[in-house]
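Data availability (excerpt). The following record was deposited with the supplementary files.
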Amino acid sequence: MMSVEGAGGKKHPLLEFSDITVVRGARRKILDGISLKIHEGENLAILGPNGAGKSSLIKIITREYYPLPGKKDPSFRILGQDRWDVSDLRRLLGIVSNDLQATFNRDITGLEVVLSGFFSSVGLFRERPGPGMKKKAARIMAFLEIEHLQDRKMNTLSTGEARRFLIGRALVHDPRALVLDEPMNGLDLHALHRINTVLRKITAAGTSIIMVTHDLSDIIPEISRVILMKNGKFFKDGPTEDVLTDKNISALFATAVKIEKNRGYYYVLRA
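Predicted structure:
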């Protein structure tokens, strides 16, 4: 693998986009000239309404979408590099999305899901995990407090339980950052609390969180930077306290709201 440091030992950003435009369907721009720089160690949330382009941004990271050439040359770099071996990328970024959860809603056990992260497969099929992989999977499941569910089939688990196994799958390579697409979507209050606790444990253990969400209350206290996104563009980016204001959130969702902060969490109240 190539060096991830620049001249003089200066570290490159973890993720760096420049002038990214994505067009789908009848020339509709779902991402419109966005630029973004995320440094290692940052805990970041990208907040916006449905249809803002948040999931499309995730698909740029996973290379499911590619930018449209334009007047300026778009660029997408991870740690300063624009070309990566897929196996190396897995050690840098763990991805958990609702699309992935739908894919894993099948007759495979939670343990098989976590182990499948070593092979980037859906289940194990012909793969044979070694003793080291099994030990690591056991440690991760204990950390996420799901070891007692490891023999249950994914299609019998609750949404929150299944999501924790997918987080475990993403953690097997000790990624530098965990990228989460709407991590609290579809969860009841108990499951919300459990996922919230898990994410805080992950940040405390040294893995960064990059969270994409439409819900202000998903943002955990450890997130120090928030980007507001609407109509495929970014229009606010900065420290959490500066961005999550009545004025900004009212403009983002085109609804007058009041923002309340309590113990590091933010909540929306109708104005």
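Summary of structural features: DSSP finds nine helices and eleven strands in the chain.
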